[in-house]
């Protein structure tokens, strides 16, 4: 059991996926967004393209059980602080910071996937001149988009003013940038970053 700093319990969803030992991973079949991005970032680092890492989540362990002398089971833990975004690093001398989310929805992306402190963090990154965005995957459609943080913040503020609680997919297609899926790298978001933030 993990808890946020305020004491709220953090719940995870257990996902059981079939294992296909001879299945090719081309096009992200059977992989989570996090796994694909971690593999992509490893490819970027190995080829000297960019240095991007997934941020570790600081955890305070409170209670541990030892069912066997050789094994320890964490029974209770707390996040030391509210998480900001998933990934950060540097590309061509610019600070990169982004969050990655996925949904099974086909027509919209729920804003409940984001948290107030994440939006605030993105605003701070933008204020200091960093490159900040979100990578959104529609898992059922197997489509991935890069959406600049300014646009996410716009939809977030509209929601707070009584607007929609989700971003329509057509708006993501309008404001965002489609990321073609591949093998190496799997989700080549840096090629989109190059076009969006460095081409002018």
TrEMBL record:
Highest taxon in the source lineage: Bacteria
Cofactor binding comment, as recorded: Binds 1 Mg(2+) ion per subunit.
Site (Transition state stabilizer): 101
Record-level GO BP terms: chromosome segregation; DNA recombination; DNA repair
Coiled coil regions in record: none
Key words of the record: Cytoplasm, DNA damage, DNA recombination, DNA repair, Endonuclease, Hydrolase, Magnesium, Metal-binding, Nuclease
A single cellular component GO annotation: cytoplasm
Cofactor: Mg(2+)
Catalysed transformations (reactions): Endonucleolytic cleavage at a junction such as a reciprocal single-stranded crossover between two homologous DNA duplexes (Holliday junction)
Name used for this protein in its record: Holliday junction resolvase RecU
Organism, as annotated: Parageobacillus toebii NBRC 107807
